[in-house]
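Observation: inputs received (chain + tetrahydrodeoxyuridine).
Thought: call the complex predictor directly.
Action: predict_structure
Action Input:
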Amino acid sequence: MRKIKLDSVFEEYDNFDLLSKEDQFLLNSAIEAAKSAYAPYSHFHVGAAVMLDNGEIVQGNNQENAAYPSGLCAERVAFFSTGAQHPNEKIKSIAVVAYPEGTEAGKVAVSPCGDCRQVMAEYEHRYGQKIRLIMQSGNGKFIVSESVSSLLPFAFDAESMK
Ligand code: THU
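Observation:
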């Protein structure tokens, strides 16, 4: 038996102003996207903004449904929209923000759910390029990961099926 120790490195920024201009721009786009979330059941608005290598932005937000599992998270709305509309463009980064209705973005932490991690990891494989993830970690702070796969060790991918 061998023990395997995995190391993941994340950057933490104490406030918005410490982030790069590009990360700030993407976060602002995610905040804008969160305003159009359809979240009448959870009252939790999530916004995501994907930046492509060519600089274009694709926004997403959570879209809920009376049949709860039929809804979709902001991250997957943004990634699937990107895959549908820009299938030949590589994804460079994604910013994710959230706020409970009646509050403002930046206060609570939001981190992609397991399903979204699985989907985002596949886009890294598909385009052969790491995708930078910027997310709010609460109290005005932000966490940045150089790769979405860092959030999903031992991910299932299509290689296993060959
Ligand atoms: N949600 C997202 O859109 N992204 C996340 O990273 C976490 C959760 C949504 C799903 C649901 O509409 C609401 O937030 C509450 O779970």
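Thought: report the result.
Final Answer: The radius of gyration is 16 Å. Strands lie at 10-13, 44-52, 57-61, 91-100, 132-138, 141-145.
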